[in-house]
């Protein structure tokens, strides 16, 4: 790696040096006192450009080397329908993903930053979201008597956590703490591709790979040993739509889309805002350009001619006008003096 960078730096240096030494075909005019300054600025700019390019290549190479030396398999890129600039999330897939989370994932993982009201208008109606919220029991209080009580859930309540605290979660999972899934897609490099590959990538460990009790082999997890077992399999959940097969790949896809929505619940609104801003900006830019051309047309289209004869004539006329004004002033002064003498 070091030899590659040395060769790259030497090539960049020779390229910059040759660009400084080459001469232009078109003859240049010489301005005293400016040629040395221009040459110095050119060398400084060339050196800065070479250093910037070298730094960019170094950063890219370090990033690639870190990825290449990772202790896990890189997830394959999947073709998601919501990855386009103007593509929205599949609301049916989000609804099915919520079903997968409720029946499979919620026994270990929490969604502490999501409330039941967030489901309204996305994958459920208000009545359906209320029914989902009322299915849980929330400890609330204190009441007027200072006691805590339990009540059915409301739309404003957040998704319940499967464990009371972190210690209880670690105790139930052999010391491992199941992460919260609210922003898991945004928090992991690879996003949906990583989560999909992790859920569907369980396999037998290779020869010589030792696993402790309670761990499972997954090549997409750092180190290969993961405490979460294989929970996604064919027919692990039942979908409401009989036309959608409940295969392992489909279930993993739906839960990934659902977790993408929990990570960025405002993504569709941002895309709609982008469309509105683009349309309004195009209209305003067109109007502004037309007004600018209209207002500046008189200045842009005028022509200024320089004719020496006309300039000389205008100069003579100005001199004659000045002389005439001076003569008229002198005559008025003389007239005033004559009047004063007659009065005396």
From TrEMBL:
Cell location: Mitochondrion inner membrane
Residues involved in heme c binding: 105, 108-109, 228
GO molecular function terms listed in the Swiss-Prot or TrEMBL record: electron transfer activity; heme binding; metal ion binding
Span of the signal peptide: none
GO biological process, any: mitochondrial electron transport, ubiquinol to cytochrome c
Keyword field: Coiled coil, Electron transport, Heme, Iron, Membrane, Metal-binding, Mitochondrion, Mitochondrion inner membrane, Respiratory chain, Transmembrane, Transmembrane helix, Transport
InterPro entries in the record: Cyt_c-like_dom_sf, Cyt_c1, Cyt_c1_TM_anchor_C
Cofactor: heme c
Gene3D superfamilies reported in the protein's UniProt record: Cytochrome c-like domain (1.10.760.10), Cytochrome c1, transmembrane anchor, C-terminal (1.20.5.100)
One GO cellular component term noted in the UniProt record for this chain: mitochondrial inner membrane
UniProt remark on cofactor binding: Binds 1 heme c group covalently per subunit.
TM spans (from-to): 272-291
Coiled coil: 307-342
Job description of the protein: Electron carrier protein. The oxidized form of the cytochrome c heme group can accept an electron from the heme group of the cytochrome c1 subunit of cytochrome reductase. Cytochrome c then transfers this electron to the cytochrome oxidase complex, the final protein carrier in the mitochondrial electron-transport chain.
Family to which this protein belongs: Belongs to the cytochrome c family.
Subunit annotation: Component of the ubiquinol-cytochrome c oxidoreductase (cytochrome b-c1 complex, complex III, CIII), a multisubunit enzyme composed of 11 subunits. The complex is composed of 3 respiratory subunits cytochrome b, cytochrome c1 and Rieske protein UQCRFS1, 2 core protein subunits UQCRC1/QCR1 and UQCRC2/QCR2, and 6 low-molecular weight protein subunits UQCRH/QCR6, UQCRB/QCR7, UQCRQ/QCR8, UQCR10/QCR9, UQCR11/QCR10 and subunit 9, the cleavage product of Rieske protein UQCRFS1.
Name listed for the protein in its UniProt record: Cytochrome c1, heme protein, mitochondrial
């Amino acid at each position: 790696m070091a030899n590659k960078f040395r060769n790259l730096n030497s090539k960049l240096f020779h390229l910059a040096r040759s660009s400084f030494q080459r001469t232009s075909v078109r003859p240049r005019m010489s301005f005293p006192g400016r040629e040395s300054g221009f040459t110095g600025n050119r060398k400084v700019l060339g050196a800065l450009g070479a250093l910037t390019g070298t730094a960019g290549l170094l950063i890219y190479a370090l990033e690639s080397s870190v990825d290449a030396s990772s202790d896990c398999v890189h997830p394959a890129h999947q073709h998601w329908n919501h990855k386009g600039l103007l593509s929205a999330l599949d609301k049916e897939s989000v609804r099915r993903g919520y079903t997968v989370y409720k029946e499979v994932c919620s026994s270990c993982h929490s969604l502490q930053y999501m409330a039941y009201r967030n489901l309204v208008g996305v994958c459920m109606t208000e009545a359906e979201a209320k029914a989902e919220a009322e299915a849980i029991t929330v400890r609330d209080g204190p009441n007027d008597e200072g006691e805590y009580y339990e009540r059915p859930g409301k739309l404003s309540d957040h998704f319940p956590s499967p464990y009371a605290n972190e210690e209880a979660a670690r105790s139930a999972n052999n010391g491992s703490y199941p992460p919260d899934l609210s922003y898991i897609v945004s928090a992991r490099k690879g996003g949906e591709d990583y989560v999909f590959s992790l859920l569907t990538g369980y396999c037998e460990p290779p020869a010589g790979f030792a696993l402790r009790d309670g761990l499972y082999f997954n090549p997409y997890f750092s180190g290969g040993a993961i405490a979460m077992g294989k929970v996604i399999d064919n027919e692990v959940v039942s979908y409401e739509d009989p036309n959608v097969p409940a295969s392992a790949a489909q279930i993993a896809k739906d839960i990934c889309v659902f977790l993408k929505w929990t990570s960025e619940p405002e993504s569709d609104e941002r895309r709609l805002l982008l469309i509105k801003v683009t349309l309004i900006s195009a209209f305003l830019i067109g109007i502004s350009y037309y007004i600018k051309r209209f207002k500046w047309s008189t200045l842009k289209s005028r022509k200024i001619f320089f004719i020496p004869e006309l300039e000389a004539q205008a100069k003579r006329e100005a001199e004659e006008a000045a002389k005439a004004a001076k003569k008229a002033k002198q005559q008025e002064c003389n007239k005033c003096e004559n009047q004063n003498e007659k009065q005396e």
